[in-house]
Amino acid sequence: MTKARRASYPESAGTLPSGERLRHVLAHPGSADLMSVAYLREQVRLLDEQYDRAPSTALIPDAGQNLGQISFLGMHARRSYVRRELYAAEAEAATLMGQLVWDASQRRDHDTAVAYFDQAVRAAQECGDKAAEGLALLRKSFVALYGWRDPKAGLGLTQQTARTTAGASQVLTGLAMLHTAEAHAMLGNRRECHQALQTADAQFGRIQPGDPAIELFSPSQPGRLAGSCYLFLHDAKNAAGILEETTQALQDQSKSQAVVLGNLALAYIWLGALDAAVARLNLAIDVTERNRGGGGMTIICSAGRQLRRWRDSAEVQDVSDRIMALMAA
Question: Are 292 and 315 a contacting pair, CB within 8 Å?
Protein backbone atom coordinates (compact mmCIF):
# COMPACT_ATOMS: atom_id res chain seq x y z
CA MET A 1 0.00 0.00 0.00
CA THR A 2 2.73 2.44 0.92
CA LYS A 3 4.67 1.67 -2.25
CA ALA A 4 1.58 2.25 -4.37
CA ARG A 5 0.96 5.65 -2.81
CA ARG A 6 4.62 6.69 -3.30
CA ALA A 7 4.59 5.54 -6.92
CA SER A 8 1.50 7.60 -7.78
CA TYR A 9 2.80 10.74 -5.96
CA PRO A 10 -0.01 12.53 -4.13
CA GLU A 11 -0.91 15.95 -5.47
CA SER A 12 0.53 17.75 -2.45
CA ALA A 13 3.79 15.76 -2.58
CA GLY A 14 4.23 17.19 0.89
CA THR A 15 6.13 14.28 2.40
CA LEU A 16 8.57 13.63 -0.45
CA PRO A 17 12.29 14.43 -0.31
CA SER A 18 13.25 17.52 -2.28
CA GLY A 19 14.60 15.72 -5.35
CA GLU A 20 11.50 13.49 -5.62
CA ARG A 21 9.25 16.48 -4.93
CA LEU A 22 10.83 18.34 -7.83
CA ARG A 23 10.36 15.40 -10.20
CA HIS A 24 6.70 15.21 -9.21
CA VAL A 25 6.22 18.96 -9.65
CA LEU A 26 7.90 18.95 -13.07
CA ALA A 27 5.48 16.22 -14.13
CA HIS A 28 2.56 18.23 -12.69
CA PRO A 29 3.76 21.86 -13.05
CA GLY A 30 0.50 23.39 -11.94
CA SER A 31 1.20 21.97 -8.47
CA ALA A 32 4.46 23.90 -8.02
CA ASP A 33 4.91 24.90 -4.38
CA LEU A 34 7.28 26.99 -2.30
CA MET A 35 9.34 24.02 -1.16
CA SER A 36 10.10 23.04 -4.76
CA VAL A 37 11.09 26.60 -5.59
CA ALA A 38 13.29 26.73 -2.48
CA TYR A 39 15.01 23.52 -3.59
CA LEU A 40 15.74 24.96 -7.04
CA ARG A 41 17.04 28.22 -5.57
CA GLU A 42 19.34 26.24 -3.30
CA GLN A 43 20.76 24.39 -6.31
CA VAL A 44 21.43 27.73 -8.02
CA ARG A 45 23.08 29.06 -4.86
CA LEU A 46 25.37 26.04 -4.61
CA LEU A 47 26.48 26.49 -8.22
CA ASP A 48 27.01 30.20 -7.67
CA GLU A 49 29.28 29.45 -4.72
CA GLN A 50 31.50 27.35 -6.99
CA TYR A 51 31.85 30.04 -9.67
CA ASP A 52 34.95 31.78 -8.40
CA ARG A 53 37.10 28.65 -8.09
CA ALA A 54 35.73 26.20 -10.68
CA PRO A 55 35.84 26.26 -14.49
CA SER A 56 32.58 27.78 -15.73
CA THR A 57 32.25 25.14 -18.45
CA ALA A 58 31.77 22.53 -15.71
CA LEU A 59 28.92 24.49 -14.12
CA ILE A 60 26.94 25.49 -17.22
CA PRO A 61 25.01 22.20 -17.77
CA ASP A 62 23.50 22.13 -14.27
CA ALA A 63 22.89 25.88 -14.22
CA GLY A 64 21.15 25.71 -17.60
CA GLN A 65 19.00 22.81 -16.44
CA ASN A 66 17.98 24.69 -13.29
CA LEU A 67 17.06 27.80 -15.26
CA GLY A 68 15.02 25.71 -17.70
CA GLN A 69 13.13 24.03 -14.87
CA ILE A 70 12.43 27.34 -13.17
CA SER A 71 11.17 28.94 -16.39
CA PHE A 72 8.99 25.92 -17.14
CA LEU A 73 7.36 25.99 -13.73
CA GLY A 74 6.88 29.75 -14.01
CA MET A 75 4.73 29.25 -17.08
CA HIS A 76 2.44 26.75 -15.34
CA ALA A 77 2.34 27.57 -11.62
CA ARG A 78 -1.21 28.38 -10.52
CA ARG A 79 -0.53 30.21 -7.26
CA SER A 80 0.47 33.87 -7.53
CA TYR A 81 2.84 33.73 -4.54
CA VAL A 82 4.61 30.72 -6.07
CA ARG A 83 4.95 32.55 -9.40
CA ARG A 84 6.49 35.49 -7.56
CA GLU A 85 9.09 33.24 -5.95
CA LEU A 86 9.76 31.60 -9.30
CA TYR A 87 10.46 35.04 -10.80
CA ALA A 88 12.98 35.62 -8.01
CA ALA A 89 14.57 32.23 -8.73
CA GLU A 90 14.64 32.99 -12.46
CA ALA A 91 16.46 36.29 -11.83
CA GLU A 92 19.14 34.47 -9.84
CA ALA A 93 19.51 31.59 -12.29
CA ALA A 94 19.59 33.79 -15.41
CA THR A 95 22.19 36.10 -13.84
CA LEU A 96 24.37 33.09 -13.03
CA MET A 97 23.96 31.68 -16.55
CA GLY A 98 25.00 34.99 -18.11
CA GLN A 99 28.04 35.10 -15.85
CA LEU A 100 29.01 31.51 -16.65
CA VAL A 101 28.54 31.77 -20.41
CA TRP A 102 30.59 34.95 -20.65
CA ASP A 103 33.38 33.56 -18.49
CA ALA A 104 33.48 30.22 -20.31
CA SER A 105 33.76 32.04 -23.65
CA GLN A 106 36.76 33.97 -22.28
CA ARG A 107 34.61 37.10 -22.38
CA ARG A 108 33.80 36.78 -26.08
CA ASP A 109 30.15 35.68 -26.23
CA HIS A 110 28.68 39.05 -25.32
CA ASP A 111 25.27 38.58 -26.95
CA THR A 112 24.32 35.39 -25.13
CA ALA A 113 25.48 36.77 -21.79
CA VAL A 114 23.52 39.99 -22.26
CA ALA A 115 20.39 38.04 -23.24
CA TYR A 116 20.57 36.15 -19.94
CA PHE A 117 21.15 39.37 -17.97
CA ASP A 118 18.16 41.00 -19.69
CA GLN A 119 16.07 37.95 -18.80
CA ALA A 120 17.17 38.33 -15.19
CA VAL A 121 16.26 42.05 -15.17
CA ARG A 122 12.74 41.29 -16.46
CA ALA A 123 12.22 38.52 -13.90
CA ALA A 124 13.47 40.73 -11.04
CA GLN A 125 11.11 43.51 -12.12
CA GLU A 126 8.20 41.07 -12.10
CA CYS A 127 8.79 40.24 -8.44
CA GLY A 128 9.93 43.76 -7.44
CA ASP A 129 13.41 42.70 -6.33
CA LYS A 130 15.62 45.77 -6.78
CA ALA A 131 18.75 44.02 -5.54
CA ALA A 132 18.40 41.19 -8.07
CA GLU A 133 17.63 43.69 -10.83
CA GLY A 134 20.69 45.72 -9.87
CA LEU A 135 22.98 42.69 -9.84
CA ALA A 136 21.91 41.72 -13.37
CA LEU A 137 22.48 45.30 -14.55
CA LEU A 138 25.90 45.34 -12.89
CA ARG A 139 26.89 42.11 -14.62
CA LYS A 140 25.69 43.61 -17.91
CA SER A 141 27.90 46.65 -17.30
CA PHE A 142 30.91 44.32 -17.11
CA VAL A 143 30.18 43.17 -20.65
CA ALA A 144 30.10 46.80 -21.78
CA LEU A 145 33.32 47.70 -19.96
CA TYR A 146 35.46 44.63 -20.60
CA GLY A 147 33.77 42.98 -23.58
CA TRP A 148 32.48 45.75 -25.83
CA ARG A 149 35.20 48.03 -24.40
CA ASP A 150 32.65 50.82 -24.49
CA PRO A 151 33.17 52.86 -21.30
CA LYS A 152 30.30 55.24 -22.14
CA ALA A 153 27.83 52.36 -22.34
CA GLY A 154 29.39 50.85 -19.23
CA LEU A 155 29.09 54.14 -17.37
CA GLY A 156 25.40 54.37 -18.24
CA LEU A 157 24.81 50.86 -16.92
CA THR A 158 26.78 51.32 -13.69
CA GLN A 159 24.90 54.54 -12.98
CA GLN A 160 21.60 52.80 -13.73
CA THR A 161 22.62 50.06 -11.31
CA ALA A 162 23.35 52.59 -8.56
CA ARG A 163 19.96 54.26 -9.07
CA THR A 164 18.19 50.89 -9.03
CA THR A 165 19.83 49.62 -5.85
CA ALA A 166 19.76 52.90 -3.88
CA GLY A 167 17.96 52.09 -0.65
CA ALA A 168 17.92 48.37 -1.43
CA SER A 169 21.59 47.36 -1.04
CA GLN A 170 24.64 49.34 0.05
CA VAL A 171 26.82 46.51 -1.25
CA LEU A 172 25.48 46.65 -4.79
CA THR A 173 25.37 50.44 -4.81
CA GLY A 174 28.99 50.53 -3.65
CA LEU A 175 30.04 48.01 -6.28
CA ALA A 176 28.21 50.01 -8.93
CA MET A 177 30.14 53.11 -7.87
CA LEU A 178 33.46 51.25 -8.00
CA HIS A 179 32.76 50.32 -11.60
CA THR A 180 31.48 53.83 -12.28
CA ALA A 181 34.93 54.99 -11.17
CA GLU A 182 36.52 52.48 -13.53
CA ALA A 183 34.40 53.69 -16.44
CA HIS A 184 35.45 57.28 -15.71
CA ALA A 185 39.09 56.15 -15.57
CA MET A 186 38.73 54.49 -18.98
CA LEU A 187 37.41 57.81 -20.28
CA GLY A 188 40.29 59.71 -18.68
CA ASN A 189 38.03 61.51 -16.19
CA ARG A 190 40.37 61.55 -13.19
CA ARG A 191 38.30 63.83 -10.93
CA GLU A 192 35.04 61.96 -11.55
CA CYS A 193 36.88 58.68 -10.98
CA HIS A 194 38.13 59.78 -7.56
CA GLN A 195 34.68 61.08 -6.60
CA ALA A 196 33.09 57.74 -7.50
CA LEU A 197 35.70 55.85 -5.46
CA GLN A 198 34.91 58.04 -2.45
CA THR A 199 31.17 57.48 -2.93
CA ALA A 200 31.77 53.73 -3.05
CA ASP A 201 33.73 53.86 0.21
CA ALA A 202 30.87 55.77 1.83
CA GLN A 203 28.39 53.12 0.71
CA PHE A 204 30.55 50.29 2.01
CA GLY A 205 30.85 52.10 5.32
CA ARG A 206 27.07 51.85 5.75
CA ILE A 207 26.70 48.14 4.99
CA GLN A 208 24.32 46.36 7.35
CA PRO A 209 24.43 42.62 8.16
CA GLY A 210 21.03 42.14 6.54
CA ASP A 211 22.07 43.56 3.18
CA PRO A 212 20.58 41.25 0.50
CA ALA A 213 23.92 41.18 -1.36
CA ILE A 214 26.19 40.93 1.69
CA GLU A 215 27.90 37.79 0.33
CA LEU A 216 29.12 39.76 -2.71
CA PHE A 217 31.21 42.16 -0.64
CA SER A 218 34.90 41.59 0.00
CA PRO A 219 37.30 44.03 1.70
CA SER A 220 39.67 43.54 -1.26
CA GLN A 221 37.24 44.97 -3.82
CA PRO A 222 37.99 48.68 -3.29
CA GLY A 223 41.72 48.08 -3.75
CA ARG A 224 41.21 45.80 -6.73
CA LEU A 225 39.10 48.39 -8.57
CA ALA A 226 41.17 51.39 -7.46
CA GLY A 227 44.28 49.68 -8.82
CA SER A 228 42.49 49.05 -12.11
CA CYS A 229 41.43 52.70 -12.22
CA TYR A 230 45.00 53.92 -11.84
CA LEU A 231 46.10 51.62 -14.65
CA PHE A 232 43.50 53.14 -16.95
CA LEU A 233 44.67 56.59 -15.82
CA HIS A 234 48.24 55.58 -16.83
CA ASP A 235 49.49 55.92 -13.26
CA ALA A 236 51.39 52.63 -12.95
CA LYS A 237 53.21 53.60 -9.76
CA ASN A 238 50.03 54.17 -7.75
CA ALA A 239 48.40 51.14 -9.39
CA ALA A 240 51.30 48.89 -8.39
CA GLY A 241 51.26 50.08 -4.77
CA ILE A 242 47.52 49.52 -4.36
CA LEU A 243 47.45 46.19 -6.21
CA GLU A 244 50.46 44.84 -4.31
CA GLU A 245 48.70 45.56 -1.02
CA THR A 246 45.50 43.99 -2.36
CA THR A 247 47.39 40.89 -3.48
CA GLN A 248 48.73 40.33 0.03
CA ALA A 249 45.16 40.34 1.35
CA LEU A 250 43.74 38.19 -1.45
CA GLN A 251 45.15 34.66 -1.30
CA ASP A 252 42.07 32.59 -2.11
CA GLN A 253 42.99 31.18 -5.56
CA SER A 254 39.89 32.88 -6.97
CA LYS A 255 39.22 34.32 -10.41
CA SER A 256 39.39 37.75 -8.80
CA GLN A 257 42.89 37.01 -7.48
CA ALA A 258 44.05 36.15 -11.00
CA VAL A 259 42.73 39.50 -12.27
CA VAL A 260 44.56 41.39 -9.51
CA LEU A 261 47.81 39.55 -10.20
CA GLY A 262 47.47 40.12 -13.94
CA ASN A 263 46.87 43.84 -13.45
CA LEU A 264 49.80 44.00 -11.07
CA ALA A 265 52.01 42.37 -13.70
CA LEU A 266 50.86 45.02 -16.19
CA ALA A 267 51.74 47.80 -13.73
CA TYR A 268 55.25 46.40 -13.25
CA ILE A 269 55.71 46.03 -17.01
CA TRP A 270 54.87 49.70 -17.46
CA LEU A 271 57.34 50.55 -14.70
CA GLY A 272 60.03 48.50 -16.42
CA ALA A 273 60.32 46.11 -13.46
CA LEU A 274 60.75 42.89 -15.43
CA ASP A 275 61.48 40.48 -12.57
CA ALA A 276 58.48 41.62 -10.55
CA ALA A 277 56.23 41.53 -13.64
CA VAL A 278 57.20 37.98 -14.54
CA ALA A 279 56.83 36.80 -10.94
CA ARG A 280 53.28 38.19 -10.66
CA LEU A 281 52.34 36.91 -14.10
CA ASN A 282 53.48 33.39 -13.19
CA LEU A 283 51.30 33.56 -10.08
CA ALA A 284 48.33 34.72 -12.17
CA ILE A 285 48.86 31.75 -14.49
CA ASP A 286 49.05 29.38 -11.49
CA VAL A 287 45.61 30.54 -10.33
CA THR A 288 44.04 30.58 -13.79
CA GLU A 289 45.23 27.06 -14.55
CA ARG A 290 42.95 25.94 -11.73
CA ASN A 291 39.80 27.98 -12.34
CA ARG A 292 40.03 28.91 -16.06
CA GLY A 293 38.68 32.40 -15.36
CA GLY A 294 38.01 34.40 -18.52
CA GLY A 295 39.00 37.70 -16.93
CA GLY A 296 42.32 36.35 -15.76
CA MET A 297 43.07 34.84 -19.17
CA THR A 298 42.33 38.11 -20.94
CA ILE A 299 44.68 40.12 -18.73
CA ILE A 300 47.39 37.44 -18.79
CA CYS A 301 47.39 37.50 -22.59
CA SER A 302 47.55 41.29 -22.60
CA ALA A 303 50.53 41.23 -20.23
CA GLY A 304 52.21 38.57 -22.35
CA ARG A 305 51.95 40.75 -25.43
CA GLN A 306 53.48 43.68 -23.59
CA LEU A 307 56.46 41.56 -22.52
CA ARG A 308 57.57 41.17 -26.13
CA ARG A 309 60.12 43.96 -25.82
CA TRP A 310 62.03 41.55 -23.53
CA ARG A 311 61.44 38.51 -25.74
CA ASP A 312 65.14 37.63 -25.73
CA SER A 313 64.98 37.09 -21.96
CA ALA A 314 64.86 33.43 -20.90
CA GLU A 315 62.31 34.11 -18.15
CA VAL A 316 60.05 35.96 -20.61
CA GLN A 317 60.29 33.03 -23.02
CA ASP A 318 59.34 30.67 -20.19
CA VAL A 319 56.28 32.67 -19.15
CA SER A 320 55.27 33.07 -22.81
CA ASP A 321 55.35 29.27 -23.15
CA ARG A 322 53.13 28.98 -20.10
CA ILE A 323 50.64 31.43 -21.60
CA MET A 324 50.52 29.44 -24.84
CA ALA A 325 49.91 26.23 -22.88
CA LEU A 326 47.19 27.92 -20.82
CA MET A 327 45.35 29.06 -23.94
CA ALA A 328 45.72 25.66 -25.62
CA ALA A 329 44.48 23.66 -22.62
Answer: no
